[in-house]
Amino acid sequence: MQSLTILAPAKVNLILKVLGKRRDGYHELRTLFHRISLCDRLVLKKLDRSKFHLTVKGAKLGPVRENLIHRAFKLLRKIKSFQGGLEVTLEKRIPHTAGLGGGSSDAAHFLLGVNRLFKLKLGRKKLLQLGTQLGSDVPFFLYDVNQAIGRGRGEKIKVFLSKNKFWFTLVVPPFKLSTASVYQAFSRRALTRISRDATITSAFSGRLDNDLFQVSCALRSELKQLDLLFDELGVSRRLMSGSGPTMFSIHKSKREAERIARQLRHRKPKARVIICHTE
Ligand code: C5P
Prior knowledge:
The chain is an alpha+beta fold. It contains nine helices and eleven strands. The chain has helices spanning 68-77, 102-117, 124-134, 138-142, 179-189, 200-203, 213-219, 222-232, 254-267, and strands at residues 3-21, 27-47, 52-57, 85-91, 147-152, 156-159, 167-172, 209-210, 238-240, 247-251, 272-277. Strands 1, 2, 3, 4, 5, 6 and 8 form a seven-stranded mixed sheet that branches. Strands 9-10-7-11 form a four-stranded antiparallel sheet, covered by helices on one side. A hairpin with a 6-residue loop joins strand 9 (238-240) and strand 10. 41% of the residues are buried. The model has no long low-confidence stretch (mean pLDDT 93). Cytidine-5'-monophosphate (C5P) binds at residues 26-27, 29, 135-137, 153-154, 179-180, 183.
């Protein structure tokens, strides 16, 4: 096998509870990751020489050396059995820095892809160890499941399959929110909440909730307006994904998701509105 094409799906967080700030600076989370059909496409080609080349289509990302795929490649390089070269084409469809885990999924699927292409025989444990070094959301994408609970930084995964197929209408505002700045703002504002504890069962009682939402609204007031718009449209099941700024509504049918999408596109012409479903 000389090349491999892989789809890297996005996620939404159906629940995100922040339990406290840890000594390592990260926040202790309980979250419910849900895989969605919106995906990036990765093409991996073996090179004769041990070089690395990344081409990104469909989005302007930062310098290649900062890309998580490149960082994943550098981690793999430290493994003795892997000295191969790669030409990687990444077709971006998942909006980046949007709370949808696109960069994390690309990195996870790159690790899975290289493992297959070069027959490295890395087990789940080793892949998870590499993934955790790349980012808190990466381990979820190393599991081929539609839903899982994330604990710790979000990297400790417990599979929690979704029997339901949901339809989602995503609204991606025309601005970015950096994950680090949202967590920083959360720490500054919510010190009293930090000692609060929640068990997995109470955190996953089925209520949609995102503890970072208020903080993200304080950073960008447009999010509060978007929330009010969902209210006006009669959509009660809506939430922000991760640290935002993407917001989404949940529907039982494609028709309903499309109906809401039409109204959102009309009212928020600068936002990107995307319909997708449980993967
Ligand atoms: O793990 P990742 O690199 O995706 O995290 C980006 C930033 O978000 C971290 O540097 C940290 O500031 C913040 N973060 C956090 N607690 C988490 C996850 C992320 O404080 N559980």
